[in-house]
C-alpha cells in the first residue's frame, strides 16, 4: 500500500526546520537549500509544500503565533483572578523559557528581515498593540485598573515595556533572567492597578 503522508504535519516539520536554521545561521542562512537539508527533504519535496521562500517564512511565523495563541487561550479560559491572568498572558509574550526564547528570537529575526516591507511589519505591530490594549480594557472592565488612567497612553507604555523587555531578554539573557522579568512587569502593573488586588488568590 502507498505510504500516506500527513501534509500538515510535514509543513510543520519544515517550519520547525526553518526555525532551527534561523536560530543557528540567522535569516541570511535560511536558504531553501539549508532548510531542506535540515528537514531531511529534497529541494523538490520542499517546493511541493512551499513554492517560494517568502511563503515558507510566512507559514513558519504563523506557526510561532499559533503556538503562542494556544498557550494564551488556555490562560484566558482559566479561573485565575484578573490581575494574575493578565500577568500570565504578559509572561507568554516576553520569553522566559527556552521554548519561548527560541520563538521570540525567530520572530525578531523575521521582523528585521521584513522591516522594509511596511505592509507586513505594520500588521504585526498593530496586532501586538491591540493585544496590550485589550488586556488593559479587560482590567478596567473587572474594576482592577485605576479609574483615572488614560487607556491609550497606558497601552503605549505597556507595549513599549513588553516589547523592550523581549528584546533585552534576547540581547542580555544572563542579566534579564525570569525572576527579574517578572519583577519588572509586576512592578509596572502594580502601579496602574488598585491596591489590594495583588493579594487576591494568595
Task: Give the helix/strand layout.
Blueprint: H1 7-29, H2 32-39, H3 43-49, H4 53-76, H5 82-93, H6 98-113, H7 118-141, H8 151-171, H9 178-192
Helix pairs in contact: 1-2, 1-4, 1-6, 4-5, 4-6, 5-9, 6-8, 7-8
Features:
disordered C terminus; 202 residues; Tetracycline Repressor, domain 2
What does this molecule look like?
Keywords: DNA-binding, Repressor, Transcription, Transcription regulation. This is TetR family transcriptional regulator. It comes from Lederbergia galactosidilytica. The chain has 202 residues and is mainly alpha-helical. It has two domains: 51 residues, Arc Repressor Mutant, subunit A; 140 residues, Tetracycline Repressor, domain 2 (Orthogonal Bundle). Helix content is 74%, strand content 0%. It has nine helices and no strands. Helix 7 packs across helix 8. The longest helix is centred in the first third of the chain and has 24 residues. It is elongated, with a radius of gyration of 20 Å. The relative contact order is 0.10. The C terminus is likely disordered.
Q: For this structure, what is the CATH homologous superfamily of the largest domain?
A: Tetracycline Repressor, domain 2
Query: How many domains would you count in the coordinates?
Result: 2
Largest sheet: none
What is the oligomer described by this structure?
A: single chain
Integer-rounded radius of gyration: 20 Å
Low-confidence stretches: 198-202
CATH architecture of the largest domain: Orthogonal Bundle
Distance between the termini: 59 Å
Q: How many beta-strand runs?
A: 0
Helix % is: over 70%
Written as H for each helix and E for each strand, in order along the chain, the element string is HHHHHHHHH
Q: What's the level 1 CATH class of the largest domain? A: Mainly Alpha
